[in-house]
Amino acid sequence: MSRSKEVITCKAAICWGVGKAATVEEIQVEPPKATEVRVKMLCSSVCHTDISSLQGFPHNQFPLALGHEGIGVVESVGDEITNLKEGDLIIPTYIGECEECENCVSGKTNLCLTHPVRLNGLMPDNTSRLSVRGQTLYHVLSCATWSEYVVVDVNYLLKVDPTTNLAHASFISCGFSTGYGACWKEAAVETGSTVAVFGLGAVGLGAISAAKMMGASKIIGVDRNEMKKEKGEAFGMTHFINTNVSDKSASDLVKELTGMGVDYCIECTGVASMFTESVEATKMGTGKTIAVGIAAELVVPFGLLAIVFGRTLKGSVFGGIKAKSDLSIIAHKCQKQEFPLEELFTHEVPLVDINKAFELLKQLDCVKVVIKM
User: Which residues form the Alcohol dehydrogenase-like N-terminal domain (predicted)?
Assistant: First the structure.
């Protein structure tokens, strides 16, 4: 019997305040409203932003239903939904794409004005479909993927092929696609150009994959974990720099390999000191750096001379990927197994052991932790 009009009680990972450990508790999930979809989550994964959310980023609203990467199946739809049905496999996204607003038609940005990034932890009508112990539950961005069920506005969902690998689809819902898009959409890397990628987590490996796809002649991975060398090479990296084994700066080490620096640098670490280094690693006058890593400190020191000498630093959300037109292309490549995404899958934990995921992320061999729902 359909439960489309019923409140569902299920388990979810939540946090009750800044710095507090996550707990797995029973929550209530309301039916979807007219333009909403209730989703049964099948697979989720952990991104660095999930760690930041425990510290009050991107908002300070608690209690907080955690998670933003994942894939699920449609459980029920609102009365006005015509493009999705029960049983469809979908990826929740944290940006929308109306294809009509000034930003969407400009071709200059993926940040839709009609369906913007949700930074207050609520649905577009500024309410929530989630509650715990009678209290409103907020989510990190457009939804909460570390929950057995969640309600998402239809404009933040992408339907994918039912044969898609669930874990791999979870990876492209944020991290991998962010890096991939940074090279593909934001930097628009040209054939024969040179690229440096700072930080070889899932985001950085996505950037390397796109650099290879775009025909870069030299793809330099920069990390302080020697174990990332093998991962980088699996995605197309041609050179590796371990910053832990040299007293020289990361930018100087990149220049030793290239002479004048790279054409493009993708900064994925979010480490404050690396912002200046990533810009200085590019060519004077023409170098371009795309910053996708979120720093622990939202205000960071920056060396002005790095920019004064003609280089460009550009910020990016979701790597410039549009939620429908671009992510669908990546999803198709994922379904056709065009990326070695199995290289990202290093650990798995059940939802009830969610705090173990945060411990696993500290291990040198950890890239992505999959949460089994």
Answer: 34-160
Q: What is the mean pLDDT of each run of 10 residues along the chain (373 residues)?
A: 78 95 97 97 93 88 96 97 96 96 96 96 97 96 96 98 97 97 98 98 98 98 97 98 96 97 96 93 98 78 89 96 96 97 97 95 94 92
Distance of alpha carbon 148 from alpha carbon 366, whole angstroms? 24
Q: What is the pTM of this model?
A: 0.95
Strand partners, 222: 198, 241
Helices and strands: H and E segment counts in the chain: 11, 19
Query: How far, CA to CA in Å, does 319 sit from each of 155, 161, 306, 365?
Result: 19, 23, 22, 25
What's CA 198's distance to the chain center, in Å? 16
Q: What contacts 144, CB < 8 A, 6 or more positions away?
A: 12, 65, 66, 67, 68, 130, 137, 150
CB under 8 Å to 65, separation ≥6 — which residues?
A: 12, 13, 14, 27, 130, 132, 137, 138, 139, 140, 144, 146, 147, 150
Residue 297 pLDDT: 66
Domain annotation for the chain: domains and CATH numbers: 8-173+340-372 (3.90.180.10), 178-317 (3.40.50.720)
Report the b/e string of 317-355 with b at 16+ CB within 10 A: bbbbbbbbebbeebbebbbeeebebebbbebbbebeebe
